[in-house]
Amino acid sequence: MHSLSPHARSVVLMLIAPVLWSMAGVFVRHLEAASQWEQVFLRSAFSALATLVFGAILYRGDLLKRLLSIGWIGMLSAALWAVQFTCFLLALSFTSVASTTIIFSLAPLVATVLAWLILRERVAARTWTIVSVAVAGVVIIFWSDLGTGGWIGNLIALAIPIAAGANWVLLRAFHAEVDLVMAVLVGGIISTVVSLPLALPFQATIFDIGTLAFLGFFQLALPCVLAVIAARHLS
Known about the structure:
Blueprint: H1 6-21, H2 24-28, H3 36-59, H4 63-68, H5 71-92, H6 97-104, H7 107-118, H8 125-144, H9 150-173, H10 180-199, H11 206-231
């Protein structure tokens, strides 16, 4: 990795991140007793802890200073991260892993459309073609799930790419130099605090806690940090 250019390293990190993100559905389907809000709470709590550890490794003595200087744009970014953390597991409770993952993957296209609407960025014709095909795919997913109730999960899942796209466009719109690692950390804390009252009483088994701890560290915190680091050198 050290022999690669910053751009090449970022591409590698950005390839690793979605692979790690994609693990959630498989593990969640094997949970024994944890309720949907308990899943959100435990994964978010472990994610916040993991991000704190990663932040301490990256910034050492500057961690607290960076956290306190996050600013209002950083807090808004954190809130959008919290929406993504929360809605992903809630969506899995109502719809399939495939539907959730496909809808979640629309984030770059949502960011493109929002950048066009808000920032007036030009969008190539081929990109509009891709956006149109993606929208058609989502309509098909919603249509096929109308009779099964899966549309509720699809609707919740749709909040994920909207929040993700809005997050990147927000930072571009304000030309913000927000520390996104700290935004991910605060996002995990917000998701943890919001979900705690709804997670009670706890029902998770030791297996559930271990699984959600693994997801918090390696499926949520690590890929988010990798994506943030990669974004410094990628469009």
